[in-house]
């Protein structure tokens, strides 16, 4: 059984490798570049950023863009609705934060912004790249918040 796990880890690593420029991501996701920029500005997606300030996207990012687009166009949510849905992920439970960390982190009390947008983070997340965090990747926008909560119960 170790082989499938290793294959899954390699597959996930490949899918998270930032290789697509904004223009290519726009074509692959069939979403205008200006919409993708709005998603970035609204904190709905965290692309990889080069030193030159250019964004790169992974296959996981492309999938996330498509799901966000579907929530907005097919489900009728606006940016605030998608962001609030993302904020409902209990990051403190997934990261197993201490009570002290919870109380010092804005993400614990904030209801309308996902944890990666918190202005003050607990010691566990303070120096972490949110793009690499399991909380950011735990949210399957297609399956919804309940899929994350089921894993915690």
Largest sheet: 3 strands, antiparallel
Based on CA inertia axes, which overall geometry fits?
A: globular
What is the succession of H and E elements?
HEHHEEHHHHHHH
Number of strand segments? 3
Query: pLDDT below 50 for ≥5 consecutive residues: which ranges?
Result: 1-6
**For the residues shown, what is the average pLDDT?**
84
Number of helices: 10
The CATH class name of the largest domain reads Mainly Alpha
Task: Provide a descriptive summary of the structure in words.
There is one protein chain. The chain is mainly alpha-helical and 153 residues long. It folds into 2 domains: 77 residues, Multidrug-efflux Transporter Regulator, Chain: A, Domain 2 (Orthogonal Bundle), CATH 1.10.1660.10; 74 residues, no CATH class. It has 10 helices and 3 strands, in the order H-E-H-H-E-E-H-H-H-H-H-H-H. The chain has a 3-stranded antiparallel beta sheet. It is globular. It starts with a helix and ends with a helix.
Task: Furnish the topology, listing elements before pairings.
Layout: H1 2-15, E1 20-21, H2 22-29, H3 33-41, E2 48-49, E3 55-57, H4 59-73, H5 79-87, H6 91-94, H7 99-103, H8 106-109, H9 134-138, H10 145-152
Antiparallel strand pairs: 1-3, 2-3
Helix pairs in contact: 2-4
